[in-house]
Design a protein that fits this description.
Rossmann fold, Histone, subunit A, globular
Length: about 325
């Protein structure tokens, strides 16, 4: 008689655009399957920004363990490489406790890195990298994008011409290794063990309802004291970090405080930019290999689908 196959460990990944209801779904799934949640929302990493990130409330975090929330300061440096390292460590720790890890967020690049792996820059090249980075930082974004189209056209066509951070990163890889990032990416290996069975769910909604939710959420953020939060952060000397790292809304509220907008204008601007972000995120997720679920109501239907699938062995 052939020996029974050892059951694979489980991993659930939930992605989707901003404001769609991912946190609700992840939390309610976790309640039903002994789950623990790892955030892949890069804006929830920072402890100083709360209202404008729609951060998972403490009462929910007290009921279900949440990781990678409030563990960084805006002054800290953090990238996708560190995210993969910390996330895989958390996945392993949750499995050892007998739990089910649920990775959830809207940061598509971070989620993709768990499936496709990443290119690590060797430690002994850090001095060279700093020199390259300093030189690239002096150049304008359009000039960098033109260089990338020449050195790595495959990567360039997948990046927005104004995405200076990722354009610079691709050029760094090329200048450091002499090899385009697009070629390195083809050689990457997923950091998730083959012993783990992973299912990736991508949540979506009716477009009109998604936009309505975004508008209601922005209004609620202002009611909850978003302007006062930004004023406090400005007084703490964090203006530069808010402009560089914080999500949509913080920079605009700084503009409001400086007299660049009136209250109606700043709200309308934030709503429009957030709708545009959600649209871009949907475009990104359409390129990913996941199981799509169109949410109804608060997302109870997705909770049922994911829970039943899990109980059925994924």
């Amino acid at each position: 008689m052939a020996p029974e196959k050892k059951a694979k460990k489980k991993l659930i990944v939930i992605g989707g655009p901003t404001g769609i209801g991912k946190s609700f779904v992840a939390y309610n799934v976790a309640l039903k399957i002994r789950g623990e949640i790892i955030s892949a929302d890069s804006m929830q990493f920072y402890r100083e920004i709360n209202i404008g990130t729609d951060k998972v409330p403490m009462e929910i975090r007290e009921k279900i363990p949440h990781y990678l929330i409030d563990f960084l300061s805006l002054r800290d440096e953090f990238d996708v490489y560190q995210f993969v390292k910390q996330t895989t460590e958390k996945i392993d720790a949750i499995h050892k406790k007998g739990g089910i890890p649920i990775v959830v967020g809207g940061s598509g690049l971070y989620l993709r890195s768990l499936f496709t792996g990443i290119f690590y820059i060797p430690e002994d090249t850090k001095d060279t990298l700093k020199e390259i980075r300093d030189n690239l930082e002096k150049e304008k974004t359009d000039a960098l994008y033109k260089k990338l189209k020449i050195t790595d056209p495959d990567t360039a066509k997948n990046l927005h011409p104004n995405d200076k951070k990722r354009i610079r990163r691709a050029l760094e890889v090329y200048l450091l290794t002499g090899k385009p990032m697009s070629l390195w990416q083809k050689e990457k290996i997923s950091p998730i063990s083959e012993e783990i069975e992973t299912v990736y769910y991508i949540l979506t909604r009716d477009r009109k309802e998604m936009y309505n939710r975004i508008e209601r959420r922005v209004d609620k953020m202002f009611e909850n004291g978003w302007v006062e939060e930004v004023m406090g952060l400005k007084e703490k000397g964090l203006t530069e970090y808010l402009q560089l790292k914080a999500p949509i809304g913080y920079k605009e509220i700084l503009g409001y405080l400086n007299g660049e907008y009136d209250m109606d204008e700043v709200k309308d601007t934030i709503k429009q930019k957030t709708r545009n972000l959600a649209k871009r995120q949907l475009t990104w997720f359409r390129k990913e290999s996941g199981k799509w679920i169109e949410l109804e109501g608060e997302g109870e239907n997705a909770v049922d689908v994911i829970t039943e699938t899990f109980k059925g062995g994924l």
